[in-house]
Amino acid sequence: MAKTEQQKLDEKREKEYAKKHKRMHRLTWQDVIFNICNYGFFSIFTLSCIFPFYYIFINTISKRSYVIAGKITLLPKGINFQNYIDMLKVNAIFDAFAVSLIRTIVGTALMVAATGLIGYLVTKQEMWHRKIWYRFIVITMYFNAGIIPWYMNMSMLGLTGTFAAYIIPGIVAPYNIILVKTYIESIPAELEESAFMDGAGFMVVFTKIIWPLSKPILATIAIFGAVGHWNSFTDSLILMQDNPKLFTLQHLLYNYLNSGSSLGSFMDTGGSGMIGMVEELANGKVIKYTVSMVAIIPILLVYPFMQRYFEKGIMLGAVKG
Description:
mainly alpha
Protein backbone atom coordinates (compact mmCIF):
# COMPACT_ATOMS: atom_id res chain seq x y z
CA MET A 1 0.00 0.00 0.00
CA ALA A 2 1.41 3.36 -1.05
CA LYS A 3 2.17 5.82 1.72
CA THR A 4 0.03 8.92 1.93
CA GLU A 5 1.51 12.38 1.88
CA GLN A 6 0.79 12.79 5.58
CA GLN A 7 2.69 9.58 6.43
CA LYS A 8 5.68 10.71 4.38
CA LEU A 9 5.60 14.08 6.11
CA ASP A 10 5.48 12.42 9.56
CA GLU A 11 8.45 10.17 8.71
CA LYS A 12 10.43 13.19 7.52
CA ARG A 13 9.73 15.04 10.75
CA GLU A 14 10.77 12.01 12.83
CA LYS A 15 14.08 11.75 10.96
CA GLU A 16 14.76 15.45 11.40
CA TYR A 17 13.94 15.23 15.09
CA ALA A 18 16.24 12.20 15.51
CA LYS A 19 19.12 14.04 13.80
CA LYS A 20 18.55 17.13 15.94
CA HIS A 21 18.31 15.05 19.11
CA LYS A 22 21.55 13.27 18.23
CA ARG A 23 23.37 16.57 17.65
CA MET A 24 22.10 17.92 20.97
CA HIS A 25 23.43 14.89 22.86
CA ARG A 26 26.75 14.65 21.05
CA LEU A 27 29.53 14.70 23.64
CA THR A 28 32.18 17.37 23.43
CA TRP A 29 35.77 16.80 24.51
CA GLN A 30 34.99 18.66 27.76
CA ASP A 31 32.14 16.21 28.43
CA VAL A 32 34.43 13.25 27.80
CA ILE A 33 37.08 14.58 30.22
CA PHE A 34 34.41 15.30 32.85
CA ASN A 35 32.95 11.79 32.53
CA ILE A 36 36.38 10.19 32.84
CA CYS A 37 37.20 12.21 35.96
CA ASN A 38 33.74 11.66 37.41
CA TYR A 39 33.69 7.89 36.90
CA GLY A 40 37.31 7.61 37.99
CA PHE A 41 36.71 9.50 41.23
CA PHE A 42 33.60 7.55 42.20
CA SER A 43 35.22 4.24 41.25
CA ILE A 44 38.14 4.98 43.59
CA PHE A 45 35.73 6.17 46.28
CA THR A 46 33.66 2.99 45.96
CA LEU A 47 36.73 0.78 46.17
CA SER A 48 37.98 2.67 49.22
CA CYS A 49 34.63 1.95 50.93
CA ILE A 50 34.55 -1.73 49.96
CA PHE A 51 38.20 -2.64 50.51
CA PRO A 52 38.19 -2.55 54.36
CA PHE A 53 35.35 -5.11 54.44
CA TYR A 54 37.06 -7.19 51.77
CA TYR A 55 40.38 -7.07 53.64
CA ILE A 56 38.79 -8.22 56.89
CA PHE A 57 36.96 -11.02 55.10
CA ILE A 58 40.00 -12.45 53.30
CA ASN A 59 41.88 -12.46 56.61
CA THR A 60 39.10 -14.49 58.25
CA ILE A 61 39.21 -17.20 55.57
CA SER A 62 43.00 -17.38 55.29
CA LYS A 63 45.38 -19.67 57.14
CA ARG A 64 46.16 -18.21 60.54
CA SER A 65 49.92 -18.42 60.13
CA TYR A 66 49.72 -16.16 57.05
CA VAL A 67 47.51 -13.68 58.87
CA ILE A 68 49.81 -13.58 61.89
CA ALA A 69 52.79 -13.00 59.61
CA GLY A 70 50.95 -10.18 57.80
CA LYS A 71 51.19 -11.83 54.39
CA ILE A 72 47.56 -11.25 53.39
CA THR A 73 47.19 -8.24 51.12
CA LEU A 74 44.82 -8.63 48.15
CA LEU A 75 44.06 -12.35 47.94
CA PRO A 76 43.38 -14.97 50.66
CA LYS A 77 45.95 -17.69 51.24
CA GLY A 78 45.23 -21.17 52.56
CA ILE A 79 41.47 -20.69 52.32
CA ASN A 80 39.47 -22.27 55.13
CA PHE A 81 36.44 -21.42 57.25
CA GLN A 82 37.74 -22.76 60.55
CA ASN A 83 37.47 -19.36 62.22
CA TYR A 84 33.73 -19.23 61.59
CA ILE A 85 33.33 -22.84 62.71
CA ASP A 86 35.10 -21.99 65.96
CA MET A 87 32.77 -19.04 66.45
CA LEU A 88 29.88 -21.48 66.76
CA LYS A 89 31.61 -23.02 69.78
CA VAL A 90 31.63 -19.74 71.67
CA ASN A 91 28.47 -19.53 73.77
CA ALA A 92 28.89 -15.83 74.56
CA ILE A 93 28.99 -14.81 70.91
CA PHE A 94 26.02 -17.00 69.99
CA ASP A 95 23.97 -15.51 72.84
CA ALA A 96 25.02 -11.96 71.92
CA PHE A 97 24.11 -12.58 68.29
CA ALA A 98 20.66 -13.81 69.35
CA VAL A 99 20.13 -10.75 71.58
CA SER A 100 21.12 -8.37 68.77
CA LEU A 101 18.94 -10.19 66.23
CA ILE A 102 15.84 -10.24 68.45
CA ARG A 103 16.42 -6.65 69.47
CA THR A 104 16.71 -5.55 65.85
CA ILE A 105 13.57 -7.37 64.72
CA VAL A 106 11.32 -6.46 67.66
CA GLY A 107 12.66 -2.93 68.10
CA THR A 108 12.40 -2.09 64.41
CA ALA A 109 8.89 -3.53 64.07
CA LEU A 110 7.56 -1.58 67.06
CA MET A 111 9.33 1.60 65.98
CA VAL A 112 7.89 1.41 62.44
CA ALA A 113 4.37 0.72 63.74
CA ALA A 114 4.48 3.53 66.32
CA THR A 115 6.16 6.00 63.99
CA GLY A 116 3.66 5.32 61.22
CA LEU A 117 0.71 5.82 63.54
CA ILE A 118 2.08 8.95 65.24
CA GLY A 119 3.16 10.40 61.89
CA TYR A 120 -0.41 9.96 60.65
CA LEU A 121 -2.05 11.36 63.79
CA VAL A 122 -0.02 14.59 63.79
CA THR A 123 -1.31 15.33 60.29
CA LYS A 124 -4.92 15.37 61.54
CA GLN A 125 -6.44 18.67 62.57
CA GLU A 126 -8.85 16.77 64.80
CA MET A 127 -6.03 15.58 67.09
CA TRP A 128 -6.20 17.19 70.54
CA HIS A 129 -3.45 19.87 70.78
CA ARG A 130 -1.78 18.45 67.70
CA LYS A 131 0.77 21.27 67.28
CA ILE A 132 1.84 21.12 70.92
CA TRP A 133 2.44 17.36 70.82
CA TYR A 134 4.28 17.57 67.51
CA ARG A 135 6.55 20.35 68.75
CA PHE A 136 7.16 18.45 71.96
CA ILE A 137 8.33 15.44 69.90
CA VAL A 138 10.55 17.54 67.63
CA ILE A 139 12.23 19.44 70.46
CA THR A 140 13.61 16.18 71.88
CA MET A 141 15.85 16.00 68.80
CA TYR A 142 17.82 19.00 69.98
CA PHE A 143 17.74 18.84 73.77
CA ASN A 144 18.55 15.99 76.13
CA ALA A 145 19.66 15.74 79.72
CA GLY A 146 22.84 13.75 79.09
CA ILE A 147 24.05 10.26 79.89
CA ILE A 148 23.97 10.45 83.70
CA PRO A 149 20.34 11.71 84.01
CA TRP A 150 19.39 9.22 81.28
CA TYR A 151 20.94 6.38 83.26
CA MET A 152 19.24 7.53 86.47
CA ASN A 153 15.91 7.69 84.67
CA MET A 154 16.34 4.19 83.21
CA SER A 155 17.34 2.92 86.65
CA MET A 156 14.32 4.46 88.39
CA LEU A 157 12.07 2.92 85.73
CA GLY A 158 13.58 -0.49 86.50
CA LEU A 159 14.92 -0.99 82.98
CA THR A 160 18.57 -1.61 83.82
CA GLY A 161 19.57 -5.20 83.21
CA THR A 162 16.37 -5.95 81.27
CA PHE A 163 15.73 -6.56 77.58
CA ALA A 164 13.02 -3.88 77.59
CA ALA A 165 15.77 -1.24 77.91
CA TYR A 166 16.69 -1.98 74.28
CA ILE A 167 13.14 -1.62 72.97
CA ILE A 168 11.12 0.99 74.86
CA PRO A 169 13.39 4.08 74.46
CA GLY A 170 13.60 3.62 70.69
CA ILE A 171 9.90 3.18 69.91
CA VAL A 172 9.34 6.90 69.33
CA ALA A 173 11.93 8.32 66.89
CA PRO A 174 11.37 12.07 66.29
CA TYR A 175 13.30 12.33 63.03
CA ASN A 176 11.47 9.34 61.56
CA ILE A 177 8.14 10.83 62.62
CA ILE A 178 8.97 13.99 60.68
CA LEU A 179 9.75 11.93 57.57
CA VAL A 180 6.54 9.92 57.86
CA LYS A 181 4.40 13.02 58.55
CA THR A 182 5.81 14.79 55.49
CA TYR A 183 5.27 11.75 53.31
CA ILE A 184 1.67 11.26 54.45
CA GLU A 185 0.92 14.91 53.73
CA SER A 186 1.92 14.26 50.10
CA ILE A 187 -0.81 11.59 49.74
CA PRO A 188 -3.94 13.06 48.07
CA ALA A 189 -6.47 14.05 50.71
CA GLU A 190 -9.29 12.91 48.42
CA LEU A 191 -8.47 9.28 49.21
CA GLU A 192 -9.15 9.83 52.90
CA GLU A 193 -12.20 11.99 52.29
CA SER A 194 -13.83 9.33 50.13
CA ALA A 195 -13.19 6.73 52.82
CA PHE A 196 -14.68 8.98 55.52
CA MET A 197 -17.74 9.51 53.36
CA ASP A 198 -18.18 5.74 53.21
CA GLY A 199 -18.18 5.59 57.00
CA ALA A 200 -14.58 4.60 57.69
CA GLY A 201 -12.87 5.77 60.89
CA PHE A 202 -9.33 7.04 61.38
CA MET A 203 -7.88 3.62 62.18
CA VAL A 204 -9.55 2.02 59.16
CA VAL A 205 -8.21 4.78 56.91
CA PHE A 206 -4.76 4.38 58.43
CA THR A 207 -4.58 0.59 58.08
CA LYS A 208 -6.36 0.26 54.71
CA ILE A 209 -5.15 3.36 52.86
CA ILE A 210 -2.31 5.26 54.52
CA TRP A 211 -0.23 2.27 55.64
CA PRO A 212 -0.12 0.52 52.22
CA LEU A 213 0.64 3.79 50.40
CA SER A 214 3.41 4.63 52.88
CA LYS A 215 5.52 1.52 52.22
CA PRO A 216 8.46 3.47 50.70
CA ILE A 217 8.91 5.76 53.71
CA LEU A 218 8.19 2.96 56.19
CA ALA A 219 10.86 0.82 54.53
CA THR A 220 13.24 3.76 54.76
CA ILE A 221 12.76 4.27 58.48
CA ALA A 222 12.94 0.48 58.93
CA ILE A 223 16.46 0.62 57.50
CA PHE A 224 17.35 3.45 59.86
CA GLY A 225 15.91 1.57 62.82
CA ALA A 226 17.45 -1.80 61.98
CA VAL A 227 20.92 -0.36 61.44
CA GLY A 228 20.64 1.68 64.63
CA HIS A 229 19.55 -1.29 66.75
CA TRP A 230 22.11 -3.65 65.25
CA ASN A 231 25.06 -1.27 65.67
CA SER A 232 24.12 0.10 69.09
CA PHE A 233 26.29 -0.85 72.02
CA THR A 234 26.24 2.21 74.29
CA ASP A 235 23.00 1.23 76.02
CA SER A 236 24.26 -2.32 76.45
CA LEU A 237 27.59 -1.03 77.78
CA ILE A 238 25.93 1.20 80.38
CA LEU A 239 22.76 -0.67 81.35
CA MET A 240 23.74 -4.33 81.15
CA GLN A 241 26.85 -4.52 83.31
CA ASP A 242 25.06 -6.73 85.82
CA ASN A 243 23.56 -9.01 83.17
CA PRO A 244 26.21 -10.28 80.70
CA LYS A 245 23.66 -12.62 79.09
CA LEU A 246 22.00 -9.55 77.54
CA PHE A 247 25.18 -8.15 76.00
CA THR A 248 24.67 -7.29 72.35
CA LEU A 249 27.04 -8.52 69.67
CA GLN A 250 28.45 -5.03 69.20
CA HIS A 251 29.05 -4.72 72.95
CA LEU A 252 30.87 -8.03 73.02
CA LEU A 253 32.94 -6.99 70.02
CA TYR A 254 33.72 -3.67 71.68
CA ASN A 255 34.86 -5.39 74.85
CA TYR A 256 36.98 -7.85 72.96
CA LEU A 257 38.65 -5.31 70.71
CA ASN A 258 39.57 -3.26 73.76
CA SER A 259 40.60 -6.07 76.05
CA GLY A 260 42.86 -7.94 73.62
CA SER A 261 41.98 -11.19 75.33
CA SER A 262 41.85 -14.48 73.47
CA LEU A 263 38.76 -16.25 72.33
CA GLY A 264 39.48 -18.90 74.91
CA SER A 265 38.42 -16.53 77.69
CA PHE A 266 34.88 -16.61 76.25
CA MET A 267 34.72 -20.40 76.10
CA ASP A 268 33.26 -22.66 78.73
CA THR A 269 35.95 -24.45 80.70
CA GLY A 270 36.38 -27.98 79.37
CA GLY A 271 38.76 -30.91 79.67
CA SER A 272 42.35 -31.15 78.56
CA GLY A 273 41.26 -31.22 74.92
CA MET A 274 40.04 -27.64 75.25
CA ILE A 275 43.53 -26.40 76.13
CA GLY A 276 44.84 -27.10 72.66
CA MET A 277 41.93 -25.25 71.12
CA VAL A 278 42.46 -22.24 73.35
CA GLU A 279 46.14 -22.16 72.46
CA GLU A 280 45.35 -22.47 68.77
CA LEU A 281 42.91 -19.56 68.91
CA ALA A 282 45.10 -17.36 71.06
CA ASN A 283 45.93 -14.96 68.23
CA GLY A 284 43.77 -11.90 68.86
CA LYS A 285 44.19 -10.45 65.38
CA VAL A 286 42.45 -13.32 63.60
CA ILE A 287 39.68 -13.44 66.17
CA LYS A 288 39.00 -9.70 65.97
CA TYR A 289 38.62 -9.96 62.21
CA THR A 290 36.25 -12.91 62.51
CA VAL A 291 34.04 -11.35 65.17
CA SER A 292 33.93 -8.13 63.15
CA MET A 293 32.67 -9.98 60.08
CA VAL A 294 30.05 -11.81 62.14
CA ALA A 295 28.79 -8.39 63.26
CA ILE A 296 28.90 -6.85 59.78
CA ILE A 297 27.54 -9.55 57.47
CA PRO A 298 23.86 -9.69 58.63
CA ILE A 299 23.15 -5.99 58.12
CA LEU A 300 24.95 -6.03 54.76
CA LEU A 301 22.71 -8.86 53.61
CA VAL A 302 19.50 -7.08 54.62
CA TYR A 303 20.23 -3.65 53.16
CA PRO A 304 20.17 -4.57 49.41
CA PHE A 305 16.62 -5.90 49.70
CA MET A 306 15.43 -2.56 51.11
CA GLN A 307 17.43 -0.36 48.74
CA ARG A 308 14.67 -0.04 46.14
CA TYR A 309 12.43 1.64 48.74
CA PHE A 310 15.14 3.74 50.33
CA GLU A 311 15.77 6.42 47.70
CA LYS A 312 12.11 7.02 46.91
CA GLY A 313 11.13 7.14 50.57
CA ILE A 314 13.86 9.49 51.73
CA MET A 315 13.33 11.92 48.84
CA LEU A 316 9.55 12.11 49.15
CA GLY A 317 9.74 12.28 52.93
CA ALA A 318 12.17 15.19 52.92
CA VAL A 319 10.47 17.57 50.50
CA LYS A 320 8.69 19.60 53.15
CA GLY A 321 9.57 20.38 56.75
